[in-house]
Amino acid sequence: MGEVVEAGSLEGIASTTMKKLHKAGLVTLESIAVTPPREIVELTGMGADTAMKVSALARLKVDPGFVSATEMLEMRSHMRRCRTGSNELDRILGGGVETGVITELIGEFGSGKTQICYTLSVLAQMPVEEGGLGGRVCVIDTESTFLPERIVQIAEARGYDSREVLSNILIARAYNSEHQIILIKNLPQVCQEHDVKLVIVDSMIGHFRGEYIGRGTLAERQQKLGNALGNLLRVAEAFNLAVVLTNQVQAKPDTAYGDPNKPAGGHVMAHACTHRMYLRRGRANTRLAQIIDSPYLPEVKVRIAITPAGITDEDGGLPAMGDEDEVKPRDEE
Ligand code: GTP
Ligand code: MG
User: Fold this and answer.
1) What is residue 320's DSSP assignment?
2) Mean per-residue pLDDT for 216-220?
């Protein structure tokens, strides 16, 4: 998390203005930089000109524009990875879910997207030395499928104190796409106040698909979706946190052979998400996971399992559903 900015550290900005920013919870350069000026006005009541000036100065300090590749490498050295619960899945992700970018989980119903989100919400809060991100988790749930009981089950199966795990997960239900957009806009403040290291939106696209029906509204839908994804990406970068989104598949009308499904959300979604993982049902409690369209990860397929402990390797050593009474906490690697 960024350092708190004091009056004077933003040159030319009056201390009364700094006080207004602080009162609105905008206490770090990062949070000021990622909050659009219009919202700064709404939050603080300051004039639009002042908000523009504050925003521009903060952005300049946080992101000087072009940087040398050496600096870029230095910045990337702060990148962290969160383990997923499956070593195989971690392996194809290059070590786990990356901070600073968006990772997208794509698949049809029951393919395990939400189960991966559950498992990540437990593991992300573990210390960095244990493969976590050492911070809190913020979940935007658009389908009302994110249940605390499953968190408790996963935490306990892994030998963690479930009460503590639950207390580190913030859940917001988004009732429609506008509400979802507002929740995403508020993320800079939430992430800063609660030291969030993982943001989940499950599902990113559901409300949009449900509400914008027909050709005429597609452009508007894609624009709103694109803006929301832009906000998420800025939060990922500014706070060096991981963003995980779920996405559904839609049928490709003219598929003669191969997989008849493609990810929803079109190019807007494809461009915003750095890593895309495609999930399919496998035999029994297993699922097949494959990275698609990645700039540098290989597109290999691995098999994972959904167990009482959430996501594990296929031979994760934990019984499948049905044998749940015999669950024993697994020793962590
Ligand atoms: P949609 O949200 O409908 O698009 O699907 P999804 O991809 O989010 O599916 P989800 O992650 O909810 O996966 C559901 C699957 O997980 C079901 O097939 C369940 O059988 C399985 N599952 C859910 N809870 C448990 C559990 O506690 N133990 C085990 N072993 N499996 C579970
Ligand atoms: Mg789901």
Assistant:
1) -
2) 84
Residue reference for tokens 């988004």: 174
Q: Where in the chain is the domain with CATH 3.40.50.300?
A: 79-325
Q: Is the CB of 316 under 6 A from ligand 1?
A: no
Query: What is the average per-residue pLDDT within 220-238?
Result: 92
Question: Residue 101 in contact with residue 325, Cβ under 8 Å?
Answer: no
Query: pLDDT at position 317, please?
Result: 53
Which atom number of ligand 1 is nearest to the Cα of residue 203?
A: 2
Higher pLDDT pick, 136 / 220: 136
Question: How far is residue 296's CA from residue 273's CA, in Å, rounded to a whole number?
Answer: 13
pLDDT tens readout for residues 232-276: 999 999 899 999 999 999 887 776 777 778 899 988 999 899 999
**What architecture is domain 1-77?**
Orthogonal Bundle (1.10)
Cis peptide bond N-terminal to 111, omega within 30: no
109 lines ligand 1 (CB under 6 A): yes
Ligand 1 neighbourhood includes 127 CB (under 6 angstroms): no
In percent, how much of the chain has pLDDT > 90? Answer: 64
Contact 310 CB / ligand 1 (< 6 Å) = no
pLDDT band at 150 (very low <50, low <70, confident <90, very high): very high
- Is residue 277 lining ligand 1, measured as CB closer than 6 Å? no
Q: Which value, to the nearest 10 degrees, does the dihedral of the CA atoms of residues 255, 257, 263, 268 take?
A: -60
pLDDT of residue 327: 39
CATH class of 79-325: alpha beta
Question: Which of 306, 314, 323 best tests ligand 1's pocket when mutated (most atoms within 8 Å of CB)?
Answer: 306
Pinpoint the residues of the chain covered by CATH 1.10.150.20. 1-77
